[in-house]
Amino acid sequence: MKIYLDIDGTMIHEDLTDNYGKAAAGLEDFIVALRRFDTYWLTTHCTTGDPVNAVRIMKAVLPELLHPDIERIKGTVWGEMKTEALDWSSDFIWFDNDIFAAEWKDLEKCRENQSVVQVDLRTNPQQLIEITRDVLN
Amino acid sequence: MEDQQQPKPSLESLLLEMIANQQSIHDAVTGLYEKVNQLECSLTGANEAQLEADLADRVDLLYASAREVVFASGKASTSYLQRKLRIGYTLAAALMDKLEEEEIIGPAVGSSPRQVLVGPDDENLS
What we know:
The complex is a heterodimer. By secondary structure, chain A is α/β, with parallel strands linked by helices. Chain A is built from five helices and four strands, in the order βαβααβαβα. In chain A, helix 4 links the parallel strand 3 and strand 4. In chain A, helix 1 packs parallel to helix 5. The longest helix of chain A is centred in the middle third of the chain and has 8 residues, at about 50-60. Chain A is globular, with a radius of gyration of 14 Å. The mean pLDDT of chain B is about 85. Chain B has four helices and no strands. By secondary structure, chain B is mainly alpha-helical. The N and C termini of chain B lie far apart (about 90 Å). In chain B, helix 3 crosses helix 4. Chain B is elongated, with a radius of gyration of 26 Å. The longest helix of chain B is centred in the first third of the chain and has 34 residues, at about 10-45. The interface between A and B is medium-sized, with 23 and 16 residues.
């Protein structure tokens, strides 16, 4: 199973409140739960395959103990649509807060065990806790 | 010649000015949101009532499947429904609301899992 991860609005709050820039509740357990999976960045902070910016942003909100978990996440290459980076020959879950209409259209070809989980930290700030419990376990 | 000093504004008047400024910023932002919403509606040809009706139709269409997912797994969350039914957050959240309304699942209590209140063989189920 491959896991694809967006950052802003998915693992780090981007709503213009006091939460802005803070780690989502349950992020540390979520990162630990990802150890069992082949995990990739799927974020505007990593579009050329070089994960350096994504790693820097995530390290800033996580304790040092979890930095090796962040460093093992692989980069992806994509242009206009994030779905370009998905490995359609494999099972996957993509976590993202903002999925474009064209990407939803592309996701119609998902078969069993290929899906996107849309994260909405504004209305459900506990969602990463829920995902770790119900989706990754 | 003595300098003519402007009278210092009172604390009360300063506060009133600050409140008025905040209100005007709030009004401007609210107005902007409304314009964006109107623009979105005009682009999609939809209005809020239509969008709500569409969502209600999709909830009706998927409700039985959502109920099956909950019974089969004992898990009831927006994320799990999304994963299993391959749907977006809004629809999953609306399905969770309906499952709660129909007393299939309990209410949300912080980050605790929702309780599944009835089983698939419950004779009261419609």
